[in-house]
Amino acid sequence: MVYERIAGEIKQRIARGELRPGDRVPSTREITARWGVAMATATKVLASLREEGLVHAVAGVGTVVSSPTPVNPAVKDDLTADAVVRAALAIADAEGLGALSMRRVAAGLGVAAMSLYRHVPGKDELVLRMIDSVFVASPPPEATGGWRERLEAVARVQWDMFSRHPWLAGAISMTRPTVLPNAVAHTEWIMQALDGHGLSVEEALQTAVTLFGFVRGIAVNLEHEAEQRQHTGITNDEWMDRQSAALASLASSGRFPMFARLLGTEVDMELRTLFEFGLARMLDGIGEWISGRPALDG
């Protein structure tokens, strides 16, 4: 495989000491230019190096060579499932879920990879425990105010939770959800906030899931944006600046008059802004939907 050959060359440079711990390795953009491969292949190169614990991402710097971690027998004796989950969270929060592997967690803990399986059956179960741990640390807020204030408050709790853990949104399925009590607590909390406002229990559940799906839908972009910043070193604003010529061409074509009116204006398209805008509109819609509906019993 091409990506394995490129990864092998970088490994050899690390082994020979040409790339030392803390040194920056080629970014995906540099790999595509130097070896003439697609961006997807370049991404697999860095992912395979991360999988082996040879490199890791550093915010604002890029991907750098990791320091070798010797196996520590004392740590092995004190190893717990909670320690494994905490180590996995640290990796996923810093580098994304793609960088997570049992081998990488073991290297961070200074233990042999096989020792982890005494505490966690495998990566899939580890990710579930990570998700549950995040929800434990982000319980629904106190029940104060009316239904709108309560839904707004819990949506912000969820947004902050996704922002602290950019990998989380992509790890949660909306179509095949795993039943985790601490996640279900958010659904129950929203349904209770809507109780007595004319909705059936089915409608209350659909509202809770729709609201969570909206928050997750915006948040799923957080990890991608973080990865792009790490891999390219380009911010959102810098990327948009590079699109100015193409945007001007579209605007002058006459095909998009509404779009043309945006030129010269500053529109805030940050994810947090889109979340706040969408949340307000969603709550407006729920309010219009339930206004005037008679209360339902049971």
UniProtKB/TrEMBL annotation:
GO biological process: negative regulation of DNA-templated transcription
GO-annotated molecular function: DNA-binding transcription factor activity; transcription cis-regulatory region binding
Regions recorded as binding DNA: 101-120
Keywords, sorted A to Z: DNA-binding, Transcription, Transcription regulation
Ranges for domain HTH gntR-type: 1-68
Pfam families: GntR, TetR_C_1, TetR_N
Glycosyltransferase among keywords: no
Start and end residues of each HTH tetR-type domain: 78-138
Keyword match Ribonucleoprotein: no
Name this protein carries in UniProt: TetR family transcriptional regulator
Organism: Saccharothrix variisporea
